[in-house]
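Deliverable D5.2: sample structural annotation.
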Amino acid sequence: MEFSRLGFGCYRVHYKVDEHINSLKKALLSGINVIDTSSNYSDGGSEIMVGNVLDDLITENKINREDINLISKVGYIQGHNYTFVENQKKSGSGFKEVVEYGDKLWHCINPDFIEDQLNKQLARLNQKYLDGYLLHNPEYFLANAEQTGMDLEESRKEYYKRIKNAFEFLDKKVSEGVIKSYGISSNTFGSNDKEFGFTSLFEISKFSNENFKIIQFPLNIVEINPIINKNNNGKTVLEFANEMRLKVLINRPLNSITSKGLVRLAEFNFVNYSERDFYKQLEKLKLMEDDMISEKLATYSIDETELKKLKKIFSFGKILEENWKYFGSIEHFNDNVEHHFIPKIDFLIEYFELHFQNEDTLNFLKKFLNELYLMLNLISNHYKMKASKRTNFFNQKLNDLTGGTIKELTLSQKALLLISSLEGISTILVGARREKYIDDILKINDLKKLGNSYEVLLNLHNELIQAENI
């Protein structure tokens, strides 16, 4: 079966978020037939969402299961999985060959672990089979080996031995009909072959068979190592994959990792604002926090430990005042909001609803959160203004390099069109968590591939090396 030009990447989607559910439904009903998820995405919530959506659309006779390429991945040990594996270890029945890479971040591709995960994943997805099952970033073994001072040659020998053992197990699963094919998703397929963590497709080809059909790696208009590094017996990973007739999936097409941090390849809408309004909002937020601590909370009998925690949380104003200039980029700011601010906000909402019945207190919290959201939006706007300069830079360069033929496209559309035009790319995975993102990316489906995409990307790469800021 053919893979659609675009695929739905399920990183950071969850079955509890309607917007994510609607986006996947829209994608599938619009002709996208590749879904890529993983055991660790949203701690299993991503796979549950995919399963629910497939059940709904199949039951409604809107899609057929056999028309969908469902791919999931295995290897990460995080979240609930981490707790389970750690408890197994403590009980004396732990899995073999677990790479204890970092705090609450382990990894494993041992057959016993894969079998345990595959059964759980099929249950979450409510599926009898997967079209593709990928080892997910197995290079964690090499990263850990480098950290612990292991010899490079011995590390690579053991690395490919573990992959070979995993493949032999997965061959059995193919024969059982549980998976149709397997492969590897690695961030180091395109790395320099001298780097410790490099994953060689050439080495893997020495022991793989016809069941090994899919590889996945990052590629975007900034990070183009997979198409320029001749790291597989004189060929790039993309060239060698084409010789092996593999399906090639691309991740992170719109998110580039640079020396300056994460760069989002997209347009940013912003509204001009005065600095006076910004500081006025900041002072208002700080005053409301003072009122909450000294007046509202003071009327309740709150455990000293809990009160201390609440006081610490109600310091958004101070934290933002001290740090708003130093987030660096819109991407870094959004990351901080998602991982640091939102969890605290969720905690406050749940705590207040559980412990405080006074309508006045609950309304005050609601007003405070509205002011906090406004403050965060002002800071976001500040960084979007900065990001728009970067977007303009990329748009201008790409317009010049293509002779203006793609001038009318958004930056994200330009980026997707260029990568999808490269020979040998099967599918570009896009994390479109909103329906409007689906609308944006679908526009490239009707566009012809660019015949000079490789030259454009190489020229852009050379110009970026000379540019001080991107």
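Annotation notes: The chain is about 50% helix and 10% strand. Residues 389 and 470 are 9 Å apart (CA to CA).
The annotation will be released with the project's public dataset once the embargo ends.
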